[in-house]
Structures are given as structure tokens and as C-alpha cells.
Amino acid sequence: MFAEYYVIAALPIKDSSQILHGITVFGCDPRRQFNRIDRAYLCNGIPTTPCQEIITGYTSGVPQTCMPAEAGVRIGIKGFKQVMVAFQYYNPTRRQGYTDSSGMTLYYTPKLRRFDAGVSPLEVTHFSVPPGRESYEVVSACPGDCTVLQVASPIYIILGMNHMHRLRRKQRIEIHRGGKLQQIVTNDTNYKVVHPHYFWYKQPIQLLPGDMLKMTCEYNSTSENDTIEWDVSWRGEMCKGLLLYYPKQSWPSHHCQNYRSVPLCEIMIDAPVFGCHFRSFISNLATTNRTLVDTVIRNCGQDKSCSPLCLRMIGKVRQDPCLQGDIYDLWKETRLVKANTQLMALYDVLTKCEEFYKGLVPDTIFSEVGTGPS
């Protein structure tokens, strides 16, 4: 495309409608070249880099998507030039032999719109839902100390939608301002997987820098005998929301993701999370001035099992708020991408005594999923 256009509407082409649950059209970063793929492949619901910007989509029960007159998604010479299309199927009976030729029709215009529209995903990952619970909540947030840096000027939300899986019960997205509830964006009191509700706003909802976005998902697991883990496939559960807003330029870094109760945006700006400055903690571990950590590694690193001396020393190290609860579990995952011998050595020592340590400390040390920002 050597001209400039705006996508203003989308209409699904439904072939196997009995199993087709959703279609998502992702825009690919125009600054990077993405090799064309002419065959379908299993993506597990996770878009491929660099195609991670949602342009539009379809969910069962929603016939079409239309932008307001003042906004659209820019494509062409100054916008997206390549797209990736993801299909989600729901086949609870596991019937074999289905084929599908569904797709999306995008309507675009050369008439420039006043605003570029963007889509912000809100999501919490790596949570668990215990079995046998009539009501279990998972809470996540994009706190005000993140939006005050990410949102350059007021944005306007024109659509909100929720996404959960089979244990779903209720879901809502709220805007909090100055510590008080300002506006409810989505509120599904009886969430339906097959026919989820789209919350359209002819009068857009304003989000200001410093506002907090809070998302709450409620599950009913009375049908389950085992814990259900977070998973983008239908085997697990999800807690995700999407906000369509404008102008996109006012909120370019629009991903609000939580690792359980930990807002990842606060990790990026090194804001305190449950008393932990996470990035500073990781940085300090990579230096040699952490006397206690060095002592633990030196005394416990050679043991094949967890000795009483090692356990006592680990108890002192684990008093650091960065080594407790969800923030500790996040650190354990982060060490996988940190090529640092000291980080790996500390990880090996801590995991060696993990089960013994859990038996010696109050249960409150290990935060339960879903007890995040309020």
C-alpha cells in the first residue's frame, strides 16, 4: 500500500460457525519486516512478534464492528502494512473432522479520520483457580503510577470487552481516580463464553494520566476436582479484557499485564511492589556487595540437600520483600532469562530448601493469587 487509509469496520466471514469462537486480526510492526506465512499453524493464542497490535476481531454473538466517525485504525504507507489473523475454536465435544474457511472482511476508507484508534489488552497471567469454590476472584490492575507515565494526555474509551473460559462467572473493568471508583467500563454479571457482551459507548469514557484500571474476574470451580491453571487454551482459565480507545498516540505503551498480583508495568518503572523495588533488587544481586547473599551461596551451594544451617541462612535472606509471595515466584521465572552466575547460584540454593522453608513460615508469606490491588 502506497497510500494512507483507515480501517473503519469489520465483518466476519463465518464458515464453521458451530466451532468458531473468535477471530483476531493483529497488525505487524511496520518498522520490522515479517516474512509472509501462507499456511496455518498452531499459535496457542499468543501472537507472533512483531505482530502483536490488535486491529479488530470477532467473537461469537457479535455480528460486526464499526468505528465511530472520528476514529479508525491507520493502514498503508503510514500505518500497518502486514497483518496476522488468529482463529480460536471451541469444540467441547471434541468432535473430529471439522474444517474451516472463515475470515474477516475489513472496510477501509481513504478519508482521514481525526484520531487513530488503538486496542489495549488488560491481562493477568500465571494464576490458579482452586477446585470446589463457588466464588473465587482474581484481581489485577494497571496502577496510577504507571498510567501517569504511560498516558501522555486524556484518552477516550469507546469499547470494552471481557474474556474468560469455562469456569467463568463474572468480570468487570473499572476506572479508579484519586482512590475512588470513577467509572465501570465493563460489567458482566453472568459472563457467557459463547455470547460475550460488547460494551460500546457513544459517549466515550475518559481515562486520565494517573487513573487506575482495575480488572476483577470471578470463577465457579465447584465442578472441578483439581486446580485449574492459567492457560490461553481451553484447558485452563483466562482473565483478560480489551479496551478500544483514541487517540492511540496518547497511550502508545498500552499493555497492562499482571503476573498474578504483580503489575508488570510497576516492575518496568521500578516502582515499589509490596515493598520490593524489583529491578533494583535484581541489579544488586548481580553485584558482589550483597554480603548475606554471598554467604548463603558460599555455605549452601555445595550441599546436595538442605542442611539446617543453610535453612537458617535462607530464612534471613527470604525476609527481603522481593523474595516473598508472587514477587518471589516472578523472580524465579525471571532468573531463566538472566545470564548471571550469581543469580543462578542463588536460585539453586533457594529451591533446594523451598519445601522445608514453606513448612517453617506463616502461610501469609505466600500470597494467594487474587489478593492484588484493591
TrEMBL record:
Keywords, comma-separated and alphabetical: Disulfide bond, Glycoprotein, Oxidoreductase
Ranges of residues in domain Copper type II ascorbate-dependent monooxygenase N-terminal: 4-95
GO molecular function: copper ion binding; dopamine beta-monooxygenase activity
Matching InterPro entries: Cu2_ascorb_mOase-like_C, Cu2_ascorb_mOase_N, Cu2_ascorb_mOase_N_sf, Cu2_monoox_C, DBH-like, PHM/PNGase_F_dom_sf
Superkingdom assignment: Eukaryota
A UniProt-annotated Pfam family: Cu2_monoox_C
The keyword rRNA processing appears for this protein: no
Domain Copper type II ascorbate-dependent monooxygenase C-terminal: 116-257
EC number(s) per entry: 1.14.17.1
PANTHER family with a match to the protein in the record: DOPAMINE BETA HYDROXYLASE RELATED (PTHR10157), MOXD1 HOMOLOG 1 (PTHR10157:SF23)
Protein name: DBH
